[in-house]
């Protein structure tokens, strides 16, 4: 068991991301139950859902014609209030002692050949098939880790993170689920 005791912003970031993902059903590239190729968006007009050639997943982006305000076109569950990406504001963030100690179990053991990586076109996902667990840091139990995703920008120094802190996006973001 490896413990990370050093208080860092990423522990808060991981906790908030985990909490948001617990309540957020919407993540267009990973959401089950997509709406068909034609679907009414929030404004009531029909829109063709563009799909990725390799995977068939609906195409989405963080801005422009396929940005977050249009994600509902690909999946009706993306039309709610608690949606990703989120902007974490310092003045609303609260750090308690219970969030300082994140426990990672099994991550110090060499993985089997069942663990593999997948490039989704927007992220690289490491699909964890062995027993990896996350607990502590205020989580309400011990959770099996199934995937680690990396989001990055188009070039070094570009804003590739999905979420932001005080409106600032970072070159890379790691998300565990």
UniProtKB/TrEMBL annotation:
<dbReference type="InterPro" id="IPR001148">
    <property type="entry name" value="CA_dom"/>
</dbReference>
<dbReference type="GO" id="GO:0008270">
    <property type="term" value="F:zinc ion binding"/>
</dbReference>
<feature type="domain" description="Alpha-carbonic anhydrase">
    <location>
        <begin position="58"/>
        <end position="177"/>
    </location>
</feature>
<dbReference type="InterPro" id="IPR036398">
    <property type="entry name" value="CA_dom_sf"/>
</dbReference>
<protein>
    <recommendedName>
        <fullName>Alpha-carbonic anhydrase domain-containing protein</fullName>
    </recommendedName>
</protein>
<feature type="region of interest" description="Disordered">
    <location>
        <begin position="156"/>
        <end position="177"/>
    </location>
</feature>
<dbReference type="InterPro" id="IPR023561">
    <property type="entry name" value="Carbonic_anhydrase_a-class"/>
</dbReference>
<comment type="similarity">
    <text>Belongs to the alpha-carbonic anhydrase family.</text>
</comment>
<dbReference type="GO" id="GO:0004089">
    <property type="term" value="F:carbonate dehydratase activity"/>
</dbReference>
<dbReference type="Pfam" id="PF00194">
    <property type="entry name" value="Carb_anhydrase"/>
</dbReference>
